[in-house]
């Protein structure tokens, strides 16, 4: 996992300089934590905004902000890699991983902060709207994993 994160971070400058094929406006909505204590104690409503520059069908870069599970503002910059594309009629599912930097967490809360790595599943409509799921596993030291929900609209 560390190798994947390092690779994605190293690729990010190249992606930024490449001409994006399109952009999306991203509305960060919510998270569902996988641990019972986290569902009771942490914020599940993670509202925020972001923008994603889609460089090609496999690569994108994303940045924005949201209110995190500890009720603080987080700012993020991510490289996204989705090499899996599953057609479903005129819809499709893109899947892969994302990695980058995120603020707003203490090391006691998220041991890997400020580096972030996650699975990414994007369900894309024929008109370019999408519902994005960020999947983060549980980690040691009382850090709950979660599934994050984001809705994206083409710009």
Structure, described:
The structure is a single chain. The protein is built from 2 helices and 8 strands. By secondary structure, the protein is mainly beta. It has one domain: Porin, CATH 2.40.160. It has an 8-stranded antiparallel β-barrel with strand order 1-2-3-4-5-6-7-8. The longest helix is centred in the N-terminal third of the chain and has 16 residues, at 2-17. The chain is globular. The N and C termini lie far apart (32 Å).
CATH architectural grouping: Beta Barrel
CA-atom Rg in angstroms: 15 Å
Percentage beta strand: over 45%
Count of the domains = 1
Q: What is the rounded distance between the termini? A: 32 Å
Mean pLDDT: 87
Question: What oligomeric state do the depicted chains represent?
Answer: single chain
Class inferred from helices and paired strands: mainly beta
* Highest-level CATH class: Mainly Beta
- Tell me about the biggest sheet? 8 strands, antiparallel, barrel
Number of helices: 2
- From the spread of the alpha carbons, the general shape counts as globular
Strand order of the largest sheet: 1-2-3-4-5-6-7-8
Task: Describe the SSE topology.
Elements (H helix, E strand, L loop, with lengths): L1 H16 L4 E12 L2 H6 L3 E10 L4 E9 L5 E16 L2 E12 L12 E10 L5 E7 L9 E9 L1
Antiparallel strand pairs: 1-2, 1-8, 2-3, 3-4, 4-5, 5-6, 6-7, 7-8
Short descriptors:
Porin; 14% helix; mainly beta; 8-stranded antiparallel beta barrel; globular; 155 residues
What's this model, at a glance?
This protein has 155 residues and is mostly beta strands.
């Amino acid at each position: 996992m560390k190798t994947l994160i390092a690779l994605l971070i190293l690729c990010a400058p190249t992606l930024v300089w490449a001409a994006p094929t399109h952009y999306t406006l991203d509305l960060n909505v919510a998270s569902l934590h996988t641990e019972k204590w986290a569902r009771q104690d942490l914020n599940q409503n993670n509202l925020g905004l972001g923008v994603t520059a889609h460089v090609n069908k496999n690569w994108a870069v994303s940045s924005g902000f949201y209110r995190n599970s500890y009720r603080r503002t987080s700012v993020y910059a991510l490289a996204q890699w989705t090499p899996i594309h599953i057609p479903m009629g005129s819809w499709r599912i893109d899947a892969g991983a994302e990695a980058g930097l995120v603020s707003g967490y203490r090391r006691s809360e998220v041991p890997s902060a400020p580096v972030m790595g996650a699975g990414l599943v994007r369900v894309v409509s024929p008109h370019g709207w999408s519902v994005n799921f960020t999947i983060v596993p549980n980690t040691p030291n009382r850090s709950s994993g979660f599934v994050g929900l984001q809705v994206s609209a083409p710009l």
